[in-house]
Specification:
single chain, alpha/beta, Alpha-Beta Plaits, six-stranded antiparallel beta sheet, 23 helices, elongated
């Protein structure tokens, strides 16, 4: 019996010892796992706190701060959803969901009404906004489908004030948010609230500083620059003009009927009149110009970066016309005019203070002559302005009485020397002065806006003349027409060309339009769109005076051009000036590589023609071949010199083809 009991007891003791060892080992393993988990939680918490505080230190805006903190809590804390909401102005129940982080964020956005429109507070967020205390919920009822949610207030700088917002975190773990973790998240929420408060205070301070700076430099009645800002900008404009060689003008302006309006309609009507004048003047000026309200009914304008002193004339005219526009005040129509004095840079007293003083003196002369006019300091400029006004009146009359004529300058092909095209040149056959030079009336037409009806007339006249030559049995050649900058920007240009072509039954290929580099480079995208509209109706496009502007090869390849015209300033020295020869060679090579024809302008000598021909230029234009001529003389030229076929290969292609 003993032989059986003793081994059993020994076996039982061994089993018990083994069991205890396994139990102890399991307990040790669980303690180790718990320690590891605790270390991981502590490490995660430290990383989350570190990222959040780094975001608080480096964020440049409240939005950036909230985004970085939510991202850090979501990624390092392994929470399913984290969002911040700021209280919307005027409401204690609406939040603007400023930042949402976490993969199931769409579920929240759909339930809350979206990121930008704000969302009504529900559930835990509403409770936190009501009493400013943190809330932790676990288990049912779940919010937005998450079993655990922790919401903490973002307290403002004033302890008694309602929270500025709320920080909410959601987890799929029902046992999430232990006490140590909650304590750390509360500290982060407090830090975030402090950071947002400082951001808000800094924003208010910057806004106040900006408002003070604005008030220090602007007139409160009109919002225009005041005398201090005016003087500062005038000094800057004069310094820049000295450096660039451009011109500056100062215009002093006063409202002629200001006192009468004040006496009859009161001070409020005068304030409205000043606002009317301010708005009218701003509409007439460029972005870089300055208009200031100095005192009472006195204004001043700086026209900077002008090419010529004459540039001030159309601006002054537009200012007078704009201010003359009637203003409605209650049940009254108020009409007023202005008197303007103009001082130009370089005149006596040409510093900032002296220019304004001179402009005021000229303004007094304008008032003394009855108002509704402008006067210069220099009598020479007054005389010039009078002549230009008289010329503008005569030009308007010329358009009505058919005093404009078109002359044609032939172009020759360098492959055979024959007439191949022509350029239409408008001329003014004045009733008493004879033929007025284009340089005298075209700038005036451009500045006054008369260039648009004048240009439209030229297009129709060229089409009419094309049909007349065809009906006379003469061959048709392409005629090129210059487009002015204002005409090129006109919305109805393409439609007008189409109407003229259809009316006179002229093939669109028989019209070519010349533009300049400056017209294209002002707004490349818009210019390309307008050029494509012209190309769509079948007309040709040419760039005039190429080489004198600022075209780059990258921009040139974007332009739907058929032809480049080498400016005569480069052609003039061919055969004697190596630099001009290099430029012409480059233009010819670039144009041909872009499949464009090349025309040499201003060819006056045999040497120039031979040089261009030897370097594969396609056509020439200039006095060596023919001067501008009347339509009758051009018809004789067409009859005597049969134009080459427009289907012939250009010279450079023909030579390459033969090789």
């Amino acid at each position: 019996m003993e032989n059986y009991i003793l081994p059993g007891l020994l076996a039982a003791c061994a089993a018990l010892t083994t069991f205890k060892w396994f139990v102890a080992r399991e307990a040790e393993r669980q303690r180790a796992n718990a320690q590891t988990a605790e270390l991981l939680r502590a490490n995660r918490a430290l990383r989350m706190a570190s990222r959040c505080r780094e975001a608080l230190l480096h964020a440049s805006s409240a939005e950036e701060m909230m985004a970085a903190v939510c991202r850090a809590i979501s990624e390092e804390g392994s929470y399913s959803l984290v969002w911040t909401g700021l209280a919307m102005a005027g409401s204690s129940k609406d939040l603007l969901a400023s930042e949402i982080q976490g993969t199931p964020a769409g579920r929240f956005a759909a339930a809350s009404g979206g990121l930008q429109r704000g969302c009504a507070c529900e559930g835990i967020a509403l409770d936190v906004m009501w009493d400013g205390k943190s809330r932790l919920r676990r288990g049912a009822p779940a919010e937005y489908g998450y079993p655990s949610v922790l919401a903490m207030p973002l307290a403002g700088s004033n302890d008694d004030a309602a929270p500025m917002g709320v920080l909410c975190m959601y987890s799929i773990d029902p046992c999430a948010f232990e006490s140590e973790e909650v304590q750390m998240l509360q500290e982060l929420a407090a830090d975030l609230a402090l950071g947002l408060s400082k951001m808000h205070e800094a924003r208010k301070r910057r806004a106040a500083e900006h408002a003070l700076a604005y008030q220090a430099h602007h007139d409160p009645a009109t919002g225009l620059a005041n005398r201090s800002l005016f003087n500062d900008r005038l000094r800057q404009a004069l310094v820049a003009a000295e450096r660039t060689g451009r011109k500056v003008a100062v215009l002093a302006l006063t409202m002629d009927r200001y006192r009468g309006v004040k006496a009859s309609l009161g001070a409020d009507a005068c304030s409205a009149l000043l606002m009317h004048a301010a708005s009218a003047m701003k509409s007439c000026l460029r972005e870089g110009d300055t208009v200031a309200h100095l005192l009472g009914n006195e204004f001043a304008v700086i026209l900077a970066d002008m090419v010529s002193d004459d540039d001030v004339l159309p601006v002054a005219t537009k200012l007078l016309e704009a201010i003359k526009a009637p203003m409605r005040w209650k049940d009254n129509i108020v009409n007023s005019t202005a008197s303007i004095g103009i001082a130009l840079m370089g005149e006596e007293g040409g510093d900032a203070t002296g220019m304004l003083r001179s402009a005021n003196s000229a303004m007094a002369h304008a008032v003394g002559h009855g108002g509704n006019r402008f006067r210069f300091v220099a009598q020479e400029m007054n005389d010039r302005a009078s002549r230009m006004f008289a010329l503008e009146t005569e030009l308007r009359s010329a358009l009505v009485h058919n005093e404009m004529v078109v002359h044609y300058q032939p172009r020759a092909s360098l492959s055979d020397g024959n007439l191949c095209a022509a350029e239409a040149l408008v001329r003014w056959q004045h009733s008493t002065r004879g033929l007025v030079p284009p340089a005298e009336f075209l700038p005036l037409a451009e500045s006054s806006g008369l260039i648009v009806p004048l240009g439209a007339w030229v297009i129709r006249e060229v089409c009419r003349q094309q049909r007349a030559w065809r009906e006379a049995g003469l061959p048709m050649v392409p005629i090129s027409i210059n487009l002015s900058p204002r005409q090129f920007r006109e919305e109805g240009l393409v439609e007008h060309i189409e109407v003229a072509l259809e009316e006179y039954d002229v093939p669109s290929a028989m019209l070519s339009f010349e533009i300049t580099e400056s017209m294209v480079m002002e707004d490349l995208e818009d210019a390309v769109a307008r050029m494509n509209e012209l190309k769509a109706i079948g007309v040709k496009l040419s760039m005039d005076d190429f080489g004198t502007g600022h075209s780059s090869l990258a921009r040139l390849r974007l332009l739907p051009l058929d032809q480049l015209k080498i400016d005569q300033s480069f052609v003039r020295q061919l055969g004697s000036e190596q630099a001009d020869e290099a430029i012409c060679r480059s233009i010819i090579d670039v144009g041909h590589n872009l499949n464009m024809q090349i025309v040499g302008e201003g060819v006056e000598t045999l040497l120039q023609r031979e040089w261009l021909r030897d370097h594969y230029c396609d056509e020439i234009q200039g006095c060596f071949f023919a001067r501008p001529m009347t339509p009758e003389d051009f018809a004789q030229q067409l009859a005597a010199d049969r134009p080459r076929s427009t289907t012939m290969l250009p010279l450079w292609k023909a030579i390459n083809y033969k090789v």
